[in-house]
């Protein structure tokens, strides 16, 4: 077994480091852009007088950084080559995300907006697997050209983790001789609607509550009458781009349907594994950053004439966190490598669900928990300055705390692991019957 990173990956990491130093760090420093990353970051990013939405200058800066990364050939790295990408693998993306987050806050990789100079594009997989050729042309190429941006309309006020009981409904209705769908219902936490051109609205079109079948995905243009944003929900980490919204007599034509009628839940789950392993890698990198910064500070700080690091009460919690980081890194990289092998196999995504879904959930829920523990410990080690906004630990905690709820709450992921472990699902199914 060879645990060394591939040589070409190591070379590419060096290329990314050079690009960040030459292009991104200078942009981060010019025109007081550092205000978005220093102690002023939450205020600088948030237009508190406009529903708490992101300030336009902040989002423009992120666009400029990704534009430069795209010109250098990095932004679309994970996308297929036919869309200008490099067919970036799960292993490579995990290593890059881990490395970037371990660098600390910066314009190279600010996950509060899911921004990175090496982008993550779940919409590509969604349209690649379920879209018509026309939809692929419009939404994949349009997404990279920034003329299309699709928000993910799954969650509802009364139904979060359990999408099978969603109350939003769509019924067939013809208007002006054009067949289509009328949508009525409520949605919540629909991230990015303030800049989205479309909402991928998941609606029950048949079947009973609790059935996985009978849910359909409809692409609703943002200006469609009857799709209304009610409010943007202020969150632990501001700015917000998460609205509560409703559909009332909202009509779209038949061509708005993405994927098969009644098969929308498969769309919602199609890229969850890819997202979860990359999110786990990011949380791991941020945890590593917190540990390393705490070690440096403990060696420099000298209360009572001795390094803070001499105290076992400082050492031992950081030793445990560092140990968990090392173990988790091995598991994340191994799992990402296994995902790549299964993706290339005849089984593809279905094989990943059957063989690896529990391992991906293990990586994700543990990494998201670990980074919160590491950020909290960094605040404790740094004392008062660690609690202040002049250090990034409070921001890291506030941001990564959401991942213990989103992309599948950790309880949902632990339930998945339990189902595989006890043989209700996965390769061990039936083993104990």
Describe the model.
- The model has no long low-confidence stretch (mean pLDDT 95).
- Helix 4 packs parallel to helix 8, helix 5 (122-130) runs antiparallel to helix 6 (133-144) and helix 10 (348-382) runs antiparallel to helix 12.
- The protein is globular and about 85 Å long.
- Among the domains are: 150-268, Butyryl-CoA Dehydrogenase, subunit A, domain 2, CATH 2.40.110.10; 271-433, Butyryl-CoA Dehydrogenase, subunit A, domain 3 (Up-down Bundle).
- 47% of the residues lie in helices and 15% in strands.
- The chain has helices at residues 7-29, 41-45, 56-71, 90-102, 122-130, 133-144, 264-269, 272-300, 312-343, 348-382, 384-387, 393-400, 410-421; strands at residues 46-47, 53-54, 109-110, 115-116, 150-153, 169-175, 178-188, 198-204, 215-221, 227-232, 243-253, 257-258.
- The protein has a four-stranded mixed β-sheet.
- The protein is an alpha+beta fold and 433 residues long.
- 41% of the residues are buried.
- It contains 13 helices and twelve strands.
